[in-house]
Specification:
Layout (H helix, E strand, L loop, with lengths): L3 E4 L2 E4 L4 E7 L9 E6 L6 E6 L5 E3 L7 E6 L4 E6 L8 E7 L5 E2 L3 E6 L1
Parallel strand pairs: 2-11
Antiparallel strand pairs: 1-3, 3-8, 4-5, 4-9, 5-6, 7-8, 9-10, 9-11
Amino acid sequence: QVQLVESGGGLVQAGGSLRLSCAASGSIASINGMGWYRQVPGKKRELVALSTSSGNTHYADSVKGRFTISRDNAKNTMYLHMNSLKPEDTAVYYCNAWGLNGVWGQGTQVTVSS
């Protein structure tokens, strides 16, 4: 089974940018649904962005126009480009394959200071 490892989180000031990476242990080309989720303590994990193998994408309203999800199938890696970051984007970000009952990475912390 594919394993996922996130990287790229960190501390950034409001208005700044980060790029998260999700490296898979196997091919992602045929995985239809891959996405990024985020969670803050005491709240449910929420969807940030989804990517399908055909190239379709879906974004949460709160990140539309600021975040971009992409895949590099040759590198078996998915990315989340985050621009114009806000303090409310602070969370642990998880990558996922095959939906809520699928495979999850360990998470990477993103902290946006005001």
